[in-house]
Specification:
One of its GO terms (molecular function) is tRNA binding. This protein is of the alpha+beta class. The chain has a domain at 9-41 and 76-153: Ribosomal Protein S5, domain 2. The chain has helices at residues 15-23, 88-105, 127-153; strands at 25-29, 33-37, 75-79, 113-118. Helix 2 packs parallel to helix 3 (127-153).
């Protein structure tokens, strides 16, 4: 049975990992957040050491090791700045809620890098109302990303 988890391999960490997703396609925009995604991950390539097996072998130096495989699942990056959420309690609450929403749908999302960016200033209010608003918007954004995957899996209509 698969469990909904959020391992370290499902997180974007360095600016180099964030850049393709931020430059990629914007999937959804709401009152608080913008969801962007990179293009699909490239398939994992495996290389074989040269042998007498035939034409399918790849020449590699004897001391070389194959590169680490490219992650195949959905990964999440969060951009929650002080400009739009001045209190650290609010920023941490938003991060926690977004990670939890992503954790529940991670296995249903296409294998891409996703970045959720806070694009507008949050209103002063209770943390409970902020959590409810953020969770509702995050669920809607991720549901839209899942629907877009399902739409792209359908065969295209022939053009007339």
């Amino acid at each position: 049975m698969l469990t909904a988890s959020f391992p370290k391999t499902a997180r974007l960490r360095s600016p180099a990992e964030f850049a393709p997703a931020l430059k990629g396609r914007r999937l959804a925009k709401g009152a608080l957040f913008v969801l962007s995604a990179s293009s699909l991950h490239a398939p994992v390539a495996t290389a074989a050491v040269t042998s007498d097996a035939g034409d399918n072998a790849v020449n590699m130096p004897a001391d070389a090791t194959p590169a680490a495989p490219i992650p195949t699942g959905a990964r999440l990056g969060l951009v929650i700045g002080k400009r739009n959420a001045p209190l650290s309690v609010s920023r941490n609450t938003l991060r926690r809620v977004l990670r939890e929403a992503f954790r529940h749908v991670r296995l249903q999302l296409p294998p891409r890098d996703y970045v959720v960016r806070l694009h507008s200033r949050i209103a002063q209010g209770s943390l409970t109302s902020l959590k409810q608003l953020a969770r509702a918007e995050a669920d809607a954004h991720f549901a839209r990303a899942i629907r877009q995957r399902d739409d792209s899996a359908r065969p295209a209509r022939p053009r007339t």
